[in-house]
Amino acid sequence: MMKSSSLFCLLYLLVLLLGFLCIALTGYWVQRWRGGFALQGSALFNWHPVCMITGLIVLYGSAALVYRLPFSWTGSKFPWKLLHASLTLAAFIVSVLGLVAVFKFHNDHKFPNLYSLHSWLGLAAVGLFSCQWVTALCTFLLPWASIWLRNLYKPIHVFFGMMILTLSVAAALAGINEKLIFSLDPRINGSLPYASLPPEACLMNAVGILIVVFGLLVLWMLLRPTWQRPDLSGPEVRQPLLEDDEEEECQ
Amino acid sequence: MMKSSSLFCLLYLLVLLLGFLCIALTGYWVQRWRGGFALQGSALFNWHPVCMITGLIVLYGSAALVYRLPFSWTGSKFPWKLLHASLTLAAFIVSVLGLVAVFKFHNDHKFPNLYSLHSWLGLAAVGLFSCQWVTALCTFLLPWASIWLRNLYKPIHVFFGMMILTLSVAAALAGINEKLIFSLDPRINGSLPYASLPPEACLMNAVGILIVVFGLLVLWMLLRPTWQRPDLSGPEVRQPLLEDDEEEECQ
To answer: Which Gene3D superfamilies match (chains A, B) (predicted)?
Structure first.
């Protein structure tokens, strides 16, 4: 029977593959049907779905699983903290670029911002993400917080991490649905209607389902007890952070 | 300091209040701006959002928390199983009525079915829900399955239960967004555009956020370890179900 750690690694590869597929298919959709990428004009918008899926879902979801990698459980935790912080920071920066693209596109074309439920959800996800990142930096990475505070905050950080991913997935699904309604409108641009399910509608509906599978897989891998980092936070291993490499509050 | 069980009961009341608010505000929206309820014509559609939010989100989420009620932990588990099964069955029936409403409305008006990502997500949620209900009936309620099988299936049932709620919330959010885009279209019905955020858009965007808060609260209450039913599944209390009232596999 396959070892639990091997199964985890195999599923992590599947997560990365699914994530890559979501980004690549969204890029293909934009390139094939929506005018490709540009820094102005209507193609400026196209950075938005690609950046948001890359940052807020794929990079974010992959970063969330770092502490579940079995080979991260031995030795110093500090490099894994740095990797987790760096990947989530990259996820945040790419998401912000995606927001810049859509705000600039709206402003250039005198379209209103932030009216749809999709935009409210997306903004809530990015807002919570920024709070989460700064709070985690202050609590887990910088040497100010006590072990007591870290252990108090840890389950809150993990829960909000999962909820931000869930919110991001919901925002992405509403966004794909919204974009297909607007784009596949024969009254405006003579395209086939969304209701006739042309190839690009099938493709992006399928990407929506892939995003759901990606999100559910990440959540399942985060929640499975046997894949959670063993709690080594007994008093004998609790030492001030950044003074010694052996910080061991469980995350 | 407040007892953990009192906090749970208080939050359960908050869940019920939030759920009631989501249903009442959606009903108000339909009544005030979308022509009320009817069994034919365009008002037939209006049963769809109300039934789906009532069944697939509010009833479903409330039913999921039944085993976390502290006073369900003592005495026989059987009445609580029946309550959980009945509430989820009611949730399923109300959801199916919501689906019947939208299919009949589409067919009456020669609109295509099942093309949007919203509809794919909603159908996936209802499909998984029906599989989940039947599998749980056969495993937990009928006397066929062994304790070994029940304990094997239990974490899968709990995980899929949470994922179906998450999927339902995502489908509802995409659906509200879609309905507001279609309804608030000056080219078709001379209404104010969604982009100008008229009162009904603000109301239903806010209902979307309330649904997110409802879903996150239910998931948090399900995941919090201290609110999970103690595992009494030691060999001394494992007895065949429906032969004795003392079935005790942990759920």
So the answer is: 1.20.120.1770
pLDDT value at A210 more than 50: yes
Which residue from B minimizes the CA distance to A193? B115
For B87-115, write each residue's pLDDT tens digit. Answer: 999 999 999 999 999 999 999 999 999 99
CATH number of B18-228: 1.20.120.1770
Looking at chain B, which residue has its C-alpha nearest residue A167? B212
Length of chain A, please? Answer: 251
> Å from A189 to nearest chain B CA?
14
Contact B20, B54 (CB under 8 A): no
Q: How far apart are CA B74 and CA A183, in angstroms?
A: 57
What ipTM was estimated for this complex?
0.92
Which of B48, B170, B191 is closest to A117 using CA atoms? B170
Out of A173, A194, A195, the one facing B121 most closely (by C-beta) is A173
How far does B76 lie from chain A, in Å, by closest CA? 28
Mean pLDDT over all residues of chain A?
A: 91
Q: Give the residue from A219, A166, A176, A220 showing the smallest Cα distance to A200.
A: A176
Residue A202: closest C-alpha in chain B: B115
pLDDT tens digits along A175-193? 999 999 999 999 887 889 9
For residue range A86-140, what is the model confidence (pLDDT) as tens digits? 999 999 999 999 999 999 999 999 999 999 999 999 999 999 999 999 999 999 9
Specify the higher pLDDT residue, A28 or B232: A28
CB B218 within 8 A of CB B17: no
- Angle of CA points B44, B48, B52, to nearest 5°: 160
Q: Are A2 and A205 in contact (CB under 8 A)?
A: no
| CB atoms inside a 10 Å sphere around CB B187 | 10
Arithmetic mean of pLDDT, B182-205 = 94
Residue B227 near residue B71 (C-beta atoms within 8 A): no
Q: What are the domain boundaries of chain B?
A: 18-228
Contact B159 A220 (CB under 8 A): yes
- What's A38-61 look like in SS3? CCCCHHHHHHHHHHHHHHHHHHHH
Contact residues on chain A for B194, CB-CB shorter than 8 A: 115-116
Q: Taking residues B13-29, what's their average pLDDT?
A: 98
Asked whether the beta carbons of residue B174 and residue A174 sit closer than 8 angstroms, the reply is yes
Q: Say whether domain A4-230 belongs to CATH 1.20.120.1770.
A: yes
Collect all residues of chain B within an 8 Å Cβ-Cβ radius of residue A217. Answer: none
d(CA B92, CA B79): 20
Compute the C-alpha angle A160/A161/A165, nearest 5°.
Answer: 110
Copy the structure tokens of residue A154. Answer: 């840890």
Cβ-Cβ contacts under 8 Å for A96 (sequence gap 6 or more): A55, A126
